[in-house]
Amino acid sequence: MSWIKIGLLVLGAYVYSAASQERRCRCLSTDPCWPSLDTWNQLDASLTGGLVPVYPPAKPCHGDNINQTECQIVHDRWFDGYWRSDQPGALISMNFEILPNETWGCQLNVSSSWPCSQGNLPTFAANVSNVADVQKAVQFASEHNLRLVIKNSGHDYIGRSTAADAFSIWTRHLNDITLHDAFVPNNTNAAPTTAVTVQTGVRLIDLYEATAHKDLVVVAGAAITVAAGGGYIGGGGHSPISPIYGLAVDNALQFTVVLANGEVVIANDAMNPDLFWALRGGGAGTWGVVIDVTLRTFPAPNVMSSVLFIAAHNDTKSFTSVMTKFIELQPQMSKDNFTGYWYGFNKTLAFLYIGYDLNKTEATTRMTPFLNFTASVSGPPPQYIVTEFPSWAAFLETTWCPGGTCPSEGGQTALLASRLIPLDSFDQPDALGSLLVDISSDLDVTGDTMLGHLVAGGEVVRKDPDSVGVNPAWRKALWHVVLTGAQFEFNATAAQRKKAGDRVTKLNSKLIDFTPGSGAYLNEADIQEPNWQQSFFGSHYDRLKQIKNKVDPHHLFICHHCVGSEDWDASLNCPAK
Ligand SMILES: Cc1cc2nc3c(=O)[nH]c(=O)nc-3n(C[C@H](O)[C@H](O)[C@H](O)COP(=O)(O)OP(=O)(O)OC[C@H]3O[C@@H](n4cnc5c(N)ncnc54)[C@H](O)[C@@H]3O)c2cc1C
Ligand SMILES: *[C@@H]1O[C@H](CO)[C@@H](O)[C@H](O)[C@H]1NC(C)=O
Ligand SMILES: *[C@@H]1O[C@H](CO)[C@@H](O)[C@H](O)[C@H]1NC(C)=O
Ligand SMILES: *[C@@H]1O[C@H](CO)[C@@H](O)[C@H](O)[C@H]1NC(C)=O
Ligand SMILES: *[C@@H]1O[C@H](CO)[C@@H](O)[C@H](O)[C@H]1NC(C)=O
Ligand SMILES: *[C@@H]1O[C@H](CO)[C@@H](O)[C@H](O)[C@H]1NC(C)=O
Ligand SMILES: *[C@@H]1O[C@H](CO)[C@@H](O)[C@H](O)[C@H]1NC(C)=O
Ligand SMILES: *[C@@H]1O[C@H](CO)[C@@H](O)[C@H](O)[C@H]1NC(C)=O
Ligand SMILES: *[C@@H]1O[C@H](CO)[C@@H](O)[C@H](O)[C@H]1NC(C)=O
Ligand SMILES: *[C@@H]1O[C@H](CO)[C@@H](O)[C@H](O)[C@H]1NC(C)=O
Ligand SMILES: *[C@@H]1O[C@H](CO)[C@@H](O)[C@H](O)[C@H]1NC(C)=O
Ligand SMILES: *[C@@H]1O[C@H](CO)[C@@H](O)[C@H](O)[C@H]1NC(C)=O
């Protein structure tokens, strides 16, 4: 090794430790170092949308002077995903609104003596609506060493968009959509392509509407109130069309990001390419505040079909044989351009599969081997409906918005665990079928479910695993399987919630054992994922961590089981000892 190299290593170690030394416990709203009201007022005045207080969604129904109009709105919209995703202090999975050690914080339908605590929610949020607002908020957090979170739609299944006594950057009002006929990423000679630039807070339903009516498709998720450019894109983004065109991150051409030092940068193949790589699947909330992302668009298919299938059995043998056949035929269904979602519960297999660019005749023909098989299984005959849609827009409108309303739920409890199931596991349909039936029967005891996603395979596995930062386990996977563990009541104690979480963690360990070397999708995963660096990032972890330490040396952006978070203690407020 040359002296120059050694010199660089020493210098590197010095710079690194200098940076680490500047990491100190965050200043919380309970600490004397928390900025004074005057200082907050100055920030408030400098932001277009001001600073907003963050409070639990049920707060208007508590206290001495209840405004009945406001409280009624809370009652009416408690389970409404649109309403929740529009509040700086409401989360889609409400169990993350409270502290892990608390029995339900601030609730509806409880006696007036029930206290309304701030729980796990931040103290103030910057209501940002342009780049300059974001820069000011980031600089403020950095200057005052605050615990910082970014809250977008609040869909995160691990509660990463909230933290107690913290300062929040609320991105819902970064909401523009721009369509391009011929987009060329800055400073590149890339061939022009059709694309759409979405600001981080745009809802998927709005992105779908803006593109589908122009006969364009874009790779985006199934939940319409998820934000297009926040956690979804940062984690990788699976979609009902990812098997056709790849994950959302495989179609991201460029990002605009505000970094921890307040600088606004473009990340693409030519500008900040390392950051660009990390932003594509290395997890959100880690690199900076994403302002916008530009995604490739594609011509819409001429026709779409869906297959809705339900086989309810009352004996394990029939359920197992249907599951096993379903597994055996998955690789072929994937080649046949089916994608979609299935449920396993109460000895029932139910699925909604999409035949991409297939008419009804083709979809039915391609499904026939499975339908014929299930018709021969003892028990009640399965039910299915094959539907054809004349356009992509018609498919979306009917499927996402039945009867003209586009429902989106929120306000439930959720603790998940999940696994990416590799293609080679489908070579053992008997073993995988028995395992899933076994796990499903355990979930039945508490009324939980197994949700399978046929969103990998196809183009997802054809991409170079190292082309983007996302978990390379995606490049070998066909299914993403999620186990839910959510059956605890609003007033469950911390211990009861822990029990529900432990239960699903334990069940998931069977899937982990069955798929050694695979991983989990960090956006729909277990909050207590064992060996999470390997599971969420695989062989990409070390490179991601290097990029993290380069772009955010003081770790302003830290979240649970995000890259670099092992350098922090469990509260994420102090450097790890
Ligand atoms: C009902 C439901 C259905 C879902 N369906 C799908 C699906 O089909 N496909 C799929 O891939 N996923 C799906 N998800 C998972 C979804 O991708 C994650 O919940 C994701 O974290 C949501 O991101 P968000 O920004 O909307 O939510 P938030 O909870 O607001 O944010 C999530 C994380 O991203 C960070 N973040 C948000 N905005 C920014 C920003 N501008 N810059 C930097 N960091 C940011 C937050 O700090 C947090 O860490 C679903 C989730 C739910 C609840
Ligand atoms: C946030 O800012 C936006 C845009 O500036 C504004 O329309 C909205 O009313 C603000 N929201 C709150 C709660 O202050
Ligand atoms: C109650 O809240 C509504 C909606 O925010 C507001 O218009 C009204 O003035 C409030 N009433 C009182 C008495 O404060
Ligand atoms: C819960 O944890 C917080 C710290 O996260 C602590 O301040 C509080 O006292 C705990 N509450 C209970 C009831 O244990
Ligand atoms: C509150 O009670 C009403 C009436 O029983 C019920 O309809 C509503 O779903 C409850 N809300 C919550 C959040 O539990
Ligand atoms: C990126 O390209 C666009 C369109 O050509 C241009 O308007 C913009 O100024 C460029 N930005 C940077 C930072 O180069
Ligand atoms: C299902 O099976 C159980 C146990 O074999 C039996 O008790 C029950 O009656 C059956 N239910 C139906 C709807 O057939
Ligand atoms: C499970 O299915 C049986 C019929 O096989 C039905 O009788 C029962 O109600 C179902 N249980 C649940 C919880 O849905
Ligand atoms: C699947 O879809 C892709 C993209 O539209 C197409 O190229 C391919 O021919 C289709 N395959 C089948 C078997 O229909
Ligand atoms: C369905 O698609 C196939 C293949 O493109 C075509 O041959 C057939 O004519 C179509 N059938 C109908 C009813 O449109
Ligand atoms: C499915 O069953 C039908 C009617 O029993 C039969 O005509 C057809 O050949 C079968 N198709 C396959 C692919 O097994
Ligand atoms: C929670 O509330 C239910 C009624 O909704 C009650 O039956 C149950 O005992 C309560 N549990 C606890 C732990 O307080």
UniProtKB/TrEMBL annotation:
Keyword Chaperone included in the entry's annotation: no
Q: Care to name a GO molecular-function term for this sequence?
A: oxidoreductase activity
Instruction: Cite the entry's keywords alphabetically.
Output: Oxidoreductase, Signal
**Which intervals hold domain FAD-binding PCMH-type?**
117-300
The protein's matches in Pfam families, at most eight in alphabetical order, are given as: BBE, FAD_binding_4
So which residues are the signal peptide here? 1-19
- The keyword Isomerase appears for this protein: no
Q: Mind telling me which PANTHER family this protein's record contains?
A: FAD BINDING DOMAIN PROTEIN (AFU_ORTHOLOGUE AFUA_6G12070)-RELATED (PTHR13878:SF91), GULONOLACTONE OXIDASE (PTHR13878)
Task: Name the family.
Answer: Belongs to the oxygen-dependent FAD-linked oxidoreductase family.
Q: What is this protein called?
A: FAD-binding PCMH-type domain-containing protein
